[in-house]
Amino acid sequence: EEFLVEISGTTVTITCPLAEGSITWKATGVTPASNERKYVIENHDSSPANVSCSSGDKTYHMYLNARVCTNCEELDALAVTGIIAADLLITFGVLILVYYFSKDRKGRASPSAGSRPRGQKVQRPPPVPNPDYEPIRKGQREVYAGLESRGF
Fold first, then answer.
1. Does residue 18 fall inside a structural domain?
2. Where is this region: Disordered (predicted)?
3. How far apart are CA 117 and CA 109, in angstroms?
4. What pLDDT score does 9 carry?
5. CB of 67 within 8 A of CB of 46?
6. Better pLDDT: 90 or 45
7. Does residue 48 sit in the same domain as residue 78?
């Protein structure tokens, strides 16, 4: 048998597993005046407490570490499931839209300056030679006749 703990806002309601007789409650720092099966803590400050209920020779102990808040909203399982399902549907919808819009753009060439052809690397032609540094060809020795090697 276990305690039943219900939390609503800052109110904590504890139900003792004992069903018969006059029930005596004991809590850390507080002496409850309740002799009923349910013990209600108003304006609980989220501090841990030891709670026990007894009737005759039977005693049940519990360590209460309940976090409460004043601005909390209670949601049932159906609302949480609906929120998660809607979030997943919206996410998948956005993914599908992005996929289809990006799929259409793949075939178009972009006019960017830094683009280069994809696929196999094409060999580039050799660079255009600078006329100031042309190599000496046969039959043109007279152009370079004045450039004789110096002896050191």
1. yes
2. 106-140
3. 10
4. 82
5. yes
6. 90
7. no
